[in-house]
Write a structure and sequence with these properties.
Blueprint lengths: L1 H7 L1 H8 L8 H4 L126 E2 L4 H10 L7 H6 L3 E2 L5 H17 L4 H14 L2 H21 L13 H12 L5 H8 L18 H7 L22 H8 L38 E3 L9 E3 L5
Antiparallel strand pairs: 1-2, 3-4
The chain binds a DNA duplex (15 and 15 nucleotides) through helix 6, helix 7, helix 8 and helix 9.
Family: Belongs to the TCF/LEF family.
Main location: nucleus
InterPro entries: CTNNB1-bd_N, HMG_box_dom, HMG_box_dom_sf, TCF/LEF
Length: 403
Amino acid sequence: MQAIRRVQDPQRVYQEKLPDHMDDGMKHQDPGMYKGSAYSGYPFLMLSDPYLPNGSMSPLSNKVPVVQPSHGVHPLTPLIPYSNDHFSHSSHSPHLPADINQKQGVHRPSQTSDIPGFYPLPPGGVGQITPSMGWFTHPLMLGSGMHTTGIPHPAIVPHSGKQEMEHYDRNMKPQPEPKREKEAKKPTIKKPLNAFMLYMKEMRAKVIAECTLKESAAINQILGRRWHALSREEQAKYYELARKERQLHMQLYPGWSARDNYGKKKRRTREKQQDSNSDPASPKKCRARFGLNQQTDWCGPCRRKKKCIRYLQGEGRCASPVSSDGSAIDSPPSPPDALQRISSAFPSDKLAAPADPAPKEQPDPFPGSAHLQTTSSSSSRPITRCSSAPAESPTFSVASSGT
DNA sequence: AGTCCTTTGAAGAGA
DNA sequence: TCTCTTCAAAGGACT
């Protein structure tokens, strides 16, 4: 039933979930645009994207040179956002069972029969699509993430990497195996990538090349800032790609739920739960402490529904909480408005920027560039210090971690 | 081998 | 309805 519901109403879901700034036009462009073909959102079919003025496959291809990343991301990365590694270890197996995901209760539609009319498959199903892509020999095409339709989807990966994929290939051999062992080798369907993940996927190599960094935590901090530095139009491209990716994912795995992958980081989960239980910086507790409206007031100057920045910075208290309309709630030194107070307190971050517990010594002269003051206080392993430098030629040096 | 770090966004669970 | 949690990618560092 859940699968049916999800398949029947994806358009509404996506439109509702579109970021606010997408309301301007994106939503209105959408009606019916996917109804012609069930897989019109499928990456391989997006050779000419109506959302991209020049029909480019890459949202940044018209402004950012494609850098072949070390991990082999395909130039079409934004539309094929899954790691090739997951598939490069298994050559095409004609014996690959079509229905490889029964364990997770994913209903694998047998062509058109099980797909509600909202996603009418073209005659012959998606399988007819592949011949038109004869030029396209992406490794994913040869992987074991093969959909019933014959089109692989990179979201299908083994539970824990390459070795399991090799096991999985062996499973293709007609050798009877214990049921329990078989179940343990069932691949995992991963979540579709969101807009920021798609952006990271594309820009990571560029940042690595610029900064000669490889540590992802530091790279991601840079990418996070650059993401906020993007214009709405630029971000909208990634939101749209993500929306299509979700739609494709929903089409391929109608019964899949993000919940299927819950519980795979159990240690971290437990620690976080313990932490949250005793964390006085939680928004709810901060609001309670300041007598704020739990429903409408924001916690702290960050205006994010997360932990209080000031608390995390060591002040041990919430400061300058603002109401939902931006007006000050406590009594700071009479700022013009809460937003200005916020931006003055955190000059290098936009309002929506992530809470960086590191003290902001001076405004970031290159917002969006690879300017990393320091790493998080939550990390006992300072990673990188990035000097202020133009975005085109940032310089990085590895901070002495003191280890 | 498994987990952490770090980012944003989507989705699910629970209050 | 809102808040909170988890996971998605990445790879070096750590346990």
